[in-house]
What we know:
Blueprint: H1 7-12, E1 17-25, E2 28-35, E3 50-64, E4 67-79, E5 89-91, H2 105-116, H3 122-129, H4 133-148, E6 159-168, E7 177-184, E8 191-197, H5 201-209, H6 213-217, E9 221-224, H7 232-237, E10 242-245, H8 247-270, H9 279-282, H10 322-325, H11 336-342, H12 363-372, H13 376-390, H14 402-414, H15 439-443
Parallel strand pairs: 2-4, 6-9, 9-10
Antiparallel strand pairs: 1-2, 3-4, 4-5, 6-7, 7-8
Helix pairs in contact: 2-3, 2-4, 3-4, 12-13, 12-14
Amino acid sequence: MDAQGSAATAMLGLPGLVLLAVSEHDGELEQAVESTEAVTGCRVCGIVAVLHDRRPTWVRDLPSGGRPVMIVWVKRVWRCPEPACPVRTWTETSEAIRPRASLTERARREACRRVGEDGHPVAQVAAAFGVGWGAVMRAVAEYGAVLVEDPVRLEAVTRLGVDERAFLAANRAHPTVFVTGIVDLSCAHPRLLDVVECRIGQSLSDWVSARPAPWRAGIEVAALDPFRGYATAPRTHLPAATRVLDAFHVTRLGFATVDEVRRRVRQETTGHRGRRDDPLFRIRRLPRRGHETTTPSGPGHDSSPGSPPATTPASTSGRPGSPLRTCGRLPLPGPPARRAAAAGLVHPLRRRRRARTAAPRPHHRRVAANLHGVSTRKVDDLVKALGADTGISKSDCPGSAPTSMRRSARSRAAAWPGSRSRTCSSTRPTARPGWTAAWCPRRW
């Protein structure tokens, strides 16, 4: 128990506040509290103040038992009885709850921890606490600034990673804003050290030069972006560090080189751009597939005489793209379709096509049938019979010109009593039985 002899107040855990009552409303707990200070003096004249009024204040707190908690602080409003004192009334305060705050201090610290350490979005944390986005972001900025400025955070860093990132998208006011992220790669889980505005080499040089000399001497490896400006800072301020490219850009540059060679060979061989039936065009995605996402009978398997038999997908180590894909030793799980291909359920390069219904007949055959008053089947039979001797095709049938289409429209309009042709826009056509007036103009 606490000093007031209440176990519930001890469970509350707010110094200087005691628990008065607890109730449940709309799935959340409401805890009514008040301060333990029953007697106080005026901060100007020092005379003992008298109770003037009580004013409730609602503040969000940490969840309890999986339910959100609302603190109802019944504040005391004090009044100075001295007529000559310039201070009239004031409201009591507490270190656990700031004036006009929507969250308790411990709730603000927890919100900062969830956003910074756990990586939760600010909007998600705000929805969990039942407050606005701005309240959580202000707590993150206040409590996070102390953690960022802590010099202990930069200790024991031996491997440094640098990469650029688009921070703000382009709009009418400004172009795309880029930032430079500096990451610690020494631990198992890389952590962000700092974010520098712009993506120029001078910004990175200023950040590295601001670090103490023992810290710069302890950097052994610097993983950089291919941008030439980033290579200036390690070469100038980190002479003992080994400069390397990160696995992502190595893989990307390798794939770009393979694609460039494939396009050049195809252009020299066929003389045109990639087409659907070209072998080099069909294998354009094969270098990006790993061993576990291809089958032994797929296009990547060497089926020539004398080649070793492929028993499992993992044994085909000679397929293109596998060294590039696994150069960083990063797990790259594929989607369910690729996992199914690895199990031999589907072919990796076979495109899934939806079952098509009966293909509609070409428009010129319908126009020809309407002009001659026969069915489209008779037109097909006539073309088939004449094509065997004369060599004509279906595209040679009459009715493909716009003139025939207008004749067909006039012939159909003549079959409707009281209607006009489509070419005449002065009157609206009369709808057929079962058609609505709103649908008929769109049909025409």
